[in-house]
Amino acid sequence: MHGLVTRSIEHFARQTHGEAVWTAAARAAGVDPRGFELMGNQDDSAARRLLHEIAALVGCSPPELSEDIGAWVAQRSAIRRLLRFAGSDFAAFVTTLEELRGRARLVLRDLELPAISVAPAPRGWRITSDCDPVWLHALAGVLHAMADDYGVLAVIEIREGSILVDVPLVDFNEGRPFSISDPTVGAA
């Protein structure tokens, strides 16, 4: 697994749940509590063990934790800006998710994201991928965060190995400000 992914898990744990949780989870998972190198690669099993240990310590399931991490990652300023380049509204964002894998490779050539398919559904979309369920839950978290960012009320759930995005109300709330030319607009 790419160091960016394991480093994201690390930073999420440290910033959201504190150093004590991170250190205990890292030790229990058999990884160095000092953290991960951003550009290094880790064994997928190490990341999986780490997710299980953090989830156990904070009292949630690994899928719930993965979704929380996805939402947290999407709220990081640099990642949010990259995601917002996908479109001016939530519909454009969702329908361009199929391009995410290629866009990620433009930024990090060795980052392997799973292929994603997006199909229309009655009030939204069905998103499928043959990826690990951990990735699917992380993507659901990203979708939650981006729906909020665009000001859209979206019901996002994982069923039968896919993500169902139901959008009952497009103008639910005012979206966060965003400007391609000014990175300080909408920065948290």
UniProtKB/TrEMBL annotation:
Transmembrane feature ranges: none
Domain Heme NO-binding span(s) in chain numbering: 2-120
GO molecular function: heme binding
Superkingdom: Bacteria
Coiled-coil features, chain-numbered ranges: none
InterPro entries: H-NOX_domain_sf, Heme_NO-bd, NO_sig/Golgi_transp_ligand-bd
Name of the featured protein: Haem-NO-binding
Organism: Paracoccus alkenifer
